[in-house]
Specification:
Function: Zinc chaperone that directly transfers zinc cofactor to target proteins, thereby activating them. Zinc is transferred from the CXCC motif in the GTPase domain to the zinc binding site in target proteins in a process requiring GTP hydrolysis.
Bound molecules: guanosine-5'-triphosphate
GO cellular component, one term: cytoplasm
InterPro entries: CobW-likC_sf, CobW-like_C, CobW/HypB/UreG_nucleotide-bd, P-loop_NTPase, Zinc-reg_GTPase_activator
Order of helices and strands: EHEEHEHHEHHEHEHHEEHEEEEEH
GO molecular function, one term: hydrolase activity
Oligomer: single chain
Protein name: G3E family GTPase
Structural class: alpha/beta
Number of domains: 2
Number of helices: 11
CATH class of the largest domain: Alpha Beta
Number of strands: 14
Strand order of the largest sheet: 3-2-4-1-5-6-7
Helix content: 25-40%
């Protein structure tokens, strides 16, 4: 790496059609004027960027619709172009990037590009995935569209929009369901985009060393179950629901310190043999020979390099792991996860 500047933080903003992404983005732009915006437009003629308020930072459009492989191909040159143009002064400098996906995009190929392409990964740092959820239509969308379920499952921050239009019962039921799809991701209520950007953008999900607080948040929920050979406990989430039934979340803790080699080979087996079935892996591990915890992240088939935290966030030093699966047979999932023990 021949560049000296710290990597530029990137946030991926996703959420179903009309769930309030652009409204939120406009609010961020007002407070963070030196933000570069990348929009992934659906259709031949982009419209969303016209709904954006004036910003001092550059705006780039990813054309080619919302087909994820197309986006994956265009995101990388777009980021390079922004970086080089700012470096040679042909566009204003920017200190952060927000990528807004279309409402029906699968965000995982974009995450893949940000983390796995070397040129990009050495200059940009994915801070997290923010998913907007319409408090009025959210349940209906989760019922009808697997994309909406996936967007929720991979989120690091869950933003409930239009809470002014929904009843408290509606919001409560939606949150219960969303919490089962993605246990541990912090939830934030928003009306018309009004929110402190720091609460949303500083997820640091992929750089946990900078933020033990963040780890603490997804460990706090008390939903972890012990893993013991022959007594595996998995949470099957929404009984009888035809769509969510395809998504399961496994939250487990392991009492004994673990061997890294065993963990790595179990995780690797999980994501490489079942890449289409794994949506998200998050874990804080107590490894043999280490005094501080190690955090691991995976999104689909990608396993990110483990990061050691400077300290345990609390007294509880058990390893904890969240695995969110899609269409993965329960028995297979349990067998793979049991190999951690
Ligand atoms: N009442 C109310 N309206 C909202 C809120 N957030 C967004 N809206 C409205 O919902 C509509 C859709 O919001 P957008 O921000 O365009 O949604 P989007 O997710 O960018 O939409 P797509 O780009 O089509 O996916 C707009 O009319 C917004 O004004 C909110 O919190 N309360």
């Amino acid at each position: 790496m021949n560049q000296t500047k710290p990597p530029i933080p990137v946030t991926l903003l996703t959420g179903f059609l009309g769930s309030g992404k652009t409204t939120l983005l406009n609010h961020f732009i007002r407070q963070l004027p030196h933000t570069a915006i990348i929009m992934n437009e659906f259709g031949e003629v982009g419209l969303d960027h016209k709904l954006l308020e004036k910003t001092q930072g550059p705006i780039a459009l990813l054309s080619g619709g919302c087909v994820c492989c197309t986006v994956q191909g265009t995101l990388s040159p777009t980021l390079k172009n922004l970086f080089m143009s700012a470096a040679n002064g042909s566009i204003p400098n920017f200190d952060r990037v927000i990528i807004e996906t279309t409402g029906i995009a699968d965000p995982t190929p974009i995450i893949d590009t940000l983390i796995n392409e070397r040129w990009i990964a050495s200059r940009f740092q994915l801070q997290g995935v923010v998913t907007t959820i319409d408090s009025v239509l959210g349940e209906l969308q989760l019922d009808s569209y697997p994309e909406a379920v996936k967007q929720v499952a991979v989120a690091d921050r869950l933003v409930f929009t239009k809470t002014d239009l929904a009843s408290s019962g509606q919001i409560e039921a939606l949150k219960l369901r969303v919490a089962m799809l993605n246990p541990g991701a912090p939830m934030i209520d928003v009306i018309k985009g009004e929110v402190d950007p720091a609460a949303i953008l500083h997820a640091s999900a992929y750089n946990p060393a900078s933020n033990t607080d963040n780890v603490q948040k997804w460990l706090d929920n008390g939903h972890f179950k012990p893993i013991k050979r022959g007594a595996f406990v998995a949470t099957k989430l929404i009984p009888g629901d035809a769509h969510d039934d395809r998504i399961r979340s496994y939250s487990l803790f392991i009492e004994e310190p673990l061997e890294w080699d065993n963990v790595y080979s179990a995780l690797n087996k999980l994501v490489s043999t079942r890449s289409k079935n794994i949506l998200r892996v998050k874990g804080i591990l107590n490894l043999k020979g280490k005094n501080t915890p190690t955090v691991i992240h995976g999104v689909q088939h990608i396993l990110y390099p483990p990061v050691e935290l400077p300290a345990w966030p609390d007294e509880d030093h058990r390893s904890r792991l969240v695995v969110i699966t899609y269409d993965l047979d329960k028995n297979i999932a349990e067998e793979l996860l049991e190999s951690f023990n």
